[in-house]
Design goal:
Layout (H helix, E strand, L loop, with lengths): L4 E6 L7 H10 L4 E6 L7 H21 L1
Parallel strand pairs: 1-2
Length: about 70
């Protein structure tokens, strides 16, 4: 059995390019979600966009329950 995967990535991430997060998402076999948040980087993702960050997590988890 494989666990679901969610990837939330800042579009301005200079540590790990968003393309790496997208590739990881595409390789996951099932139960996956990819969300790119504009205007944030690697270390300020939650600080700058907590509301959007947690909204994506809620949406992902709601989708698993269906």
């Amino acid at each position: 059995m494989r666990s679901p995967l969610i990837v939330i990535h800042g579009e301005d991430d200079r540590v790990l390019p968003p393309s790496m997060g997208k590739e990881l998402h595409e390789r996951a076999p099932r139960g996956r979600g990819f969300f790119a948040i504009p205007g944030v980087g690697h270390n300020d993702l939650i600080e700058q966009s907590a509301e959007r960050f947690f909204a994506h997590i809620r949406r992902f988890l709601d989708g698993l329950a269906e």
